[in-house]
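Intended use. Records like the one below are meant for learning the mapping from a protein sequence to its folded structure. Do not use them to infer anything beyond what is encoded.
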Amino acid sequence: MATTADIRNGLCIKHNEKLFQIIEFQHVKPGKGPAFVRTKMRQIETGKVLDNTFSAGHKIEIVRIENREYQYLYQEGTDFVFMNNETFEQVHIPAKMVEKPDFLQEGMICNILFHAEEEMPLVLELPMYIVSEVTYTEPGIKGDTATNSMKPATIATGAQVKVPLFIEIGEVIKVDTAKGVYVERVKN
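Structure written out for the chain above:
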C-alpha cells in the first residue's frame, strides 16, 4: 500500500470506494502541527472535481490505469463502438461515458483510460481539436467582418458551434472539443 509521499499529478487512487485521478497536489508543512497533503482530485465516473486533505503518511490505494488509442467506428443503439488499431479488438462505450458525443467523427482516434486489472473502460478522451465542414449557417452580411460577432452553425458531426459572421456553408473549420468553440478556418 502506498502513502501520501507517493502522490503525483495524474495518479489514480481509490478513495471512499470510488476512483479518483489527482489533478494537483501540494505538500504542506506548517510551522505548528503535523504535515499534510492538499489535493484536487477528479472523480473518474462523474468528472466532478473535489478538494481533499490527507494527513502525512496516510495510506492510499493506487489503481493502475492504462491509456490506449482506439478508433471510433459507429454508434450502435446507445453505445459507441471503438476499435483498437493494433489488436482489432472492439469495445462498446456507453453514451454516458462520452462527454460530448456530438463531436465524434467516424475514423477519429480517441484515448480510452482502462482500469488495468479489471480491463474496464473508465474515461473516453476526445482529441483536443477536430476539423469539420460547416453544413448549415445563416449567410453573412458583406462588410460585417470587423466585429467579434458570432452566429450559430451546424458542423458535419451535427454539433452546434458559434462561428464568426464571415464563415459560410461548405467551409472547413477547426473546433476545440473541450470548450465546443470555433478556433480557426482551415484552408485546403
